[in-house]
Amino acid sequence: MVEEILRVEPQLFGSQVQHTSIARKAELWQRIVDRVNAVGQHPRNREDIRKRWNDLRGKVRSMVSRHNIAVQKTGGGPPPTPPEFTSWEQEVFNILHP
Fold it and tell me: Where is this region: Disordered (predicted)?
């Protein structure tokens, strides 16, 4: 799912979003839904996929936020280690923080 969304991310959320019509966005989301349903056992709809994407994005943002808070704390000891991302989390991070 992440790969499919990242493939069309500029048109759905990024630099080309203002130039993408509502009908085109719906078409892109439907293509993502079709590809996810082709490999999954449970059929998903557009709202399910969008919610999952927002949840994944939120998880990555939360990991980064916790790290940034830890970095700004005072006190001794070693510095906090940066978050360890899975491959898809790293891809989402790269989109959120270019």
Answer: 70-89
